[in-house]
Design brief:
CATH class of the largest domain in chain B: Mainly Alpha
Number of strands of chain B: 0
CATH architecture of the largest domain in chain B: Up-down Bundle
CATH class of chain A: Mainly Alpha
Strand content of chain B: under 5%
CATH architecture of chain A: Orthogonal Bundle
Shape of chain A: elongated
Structural class of chain A: mainly alpha
CATH superfamily of the largest domain in chain B: NADH-ubiquinone/plastoquinone oxidoreductase chain 6, subunit NuoJ
CATH topology of chain A: Helix Hairpins
Shape of chain B: globular
Number of helices of chain B: 7
Oligomer: heterodimer
Helix content of chain A: over 70%
Helix content of chain B: over 70%
Largest sheet of chain B: none
Structural class of chain B: mainly alpha
Order of helices and strands of chain B: HHHHHHH
CATH topology of the largest domain in chain B: Four Helix Bundle (Hemerythrin (Met), subunit A)
Number of domains of chain A: 1
Distance between the termini of chain B: 57 Å
Largest sheet of chain A: none
Radius of gyration of chain A: 18 Å
Order of helices and strands of chain A: HHH
Number of helices of chain A: 3
Chain lengths: 103, 170
């Protein structure tokens, strides 16, 4: 039998990934980099779901929930990147600080 | 032991994603993070989630992000390099959130929680794979979310194709 990984360590890893994702969302200026930060946050949440699903081996609700989270992420990133492309074509930049509305 | 190697890889590459200025390097460090998370899912007895992570994330979302980088910046000049802003506030929020979460996790005594005590961790029965039980559950207990997810994917496909079309008549 494999020695089980302590739950605290998985949760600490997930907390670190979550706060690094928040840091990327706050500090980055390029729209695609902000999207990558959001992906990091989603992955941290997914890691938590899978980690707690280990204590529920019959129902596997955590793993099923993380499957639906992955589906939602796929749809979200497709639409978000399409919007980023339109914004780039319209404003000729993807820098979030330089995108300003017309007066 | 393997878990700590994967965890160190994930945290290091996520930190590199935050620190680097080059968009393409950030994309590839996100690739390393996602791959090591897939390895951690395998270690947590979630083989189907790990395979889905590889197929959807590494095969789909990351390629989409790389396309987004290439279409929204000119690689030859400086626009592939992106400066950071709000560094002080971002670092403050990062320190606040990470210390708060780590303090809470370290303070909680998980082994005393009753529903974790009652659970048996290493029970997958005679089968060591979760694929069959996930398939059965998707077709019985979770059939409504499954259908809603397929509808959501269809709508997102149509919406993304419509938004990204050039010269659309409004």
């Amino acid at each position: 039998m494999i020695e089980p990984i302590p739950l605290e360590h998985i949760l600490l890893l997930s907390a670190l990934l979550f706060s690094l994702g928040i840091l990327a969302v706050i500090t980055k200026r390029h729209a695609v980099l902000v999207l990558m930060g959001i992906e990091l946050i989603f992955n941290a949440a997914n890691l938590n779901l899978v980690a707690f699903s280990r204590y529920d081996p019959v129902l596997l609700q955590g793993q099923l929930f993380s499957l639906f989270v992955i589906v939602v992420i796929a749809a979200e990133s497709a639409v978000a990147l399409a919007i980023v492309l339109r914004v780039y074509q319209y404003f000729k930049t993807a820098n979030l600080n330089k995108i300003v509305g017309e007066e | 032991m393997l878990f700590y190697i994967f965890a160190a890889l994930a945290v290091l590459s996520a930190g590199y994603l935050v620190l680097t200025r080059n968009l393409l390097y950030a994309g590839f460090s996100l690739l390393v993070t996602l791959l090591s998370l897939a390895g951690i899912y395998v270690l947590l007895f979630a083989d189907f989630v790990a395979v889905l992570q590889l197929m959807v994330y590494v095969g789909g979302v990351l390629v989409l992000i790389l396309f987004g980088i290439m279409l929204s910046s000119r690689v030859h000049d400086d626009s592939v390099l992106s400066k950071s802003s709000n560094k002080i506030w971002g670092t403050l929020v990062f320190l606040f959130v990470s210390t708060g979460l780590c303090y809470t996790i370290l303070k909680t005594n998980f082994s005393l929680l009753p529903w974790l005590q009652a659970a048996e961790t290493d029970v997958l029965g005679y089968q060591k794979s979760t694929v069959q039980s996930i398939g059965i559950k998707l077709m019985t207990d979770f059939v409504l979310p499954f259908e809603v997810a397929s509808l959501l994917l269809l709508i997102a496909l149509m919406g993304a194709a419509y938004i990204a079309t050039e010269n659309q008549k409004v």
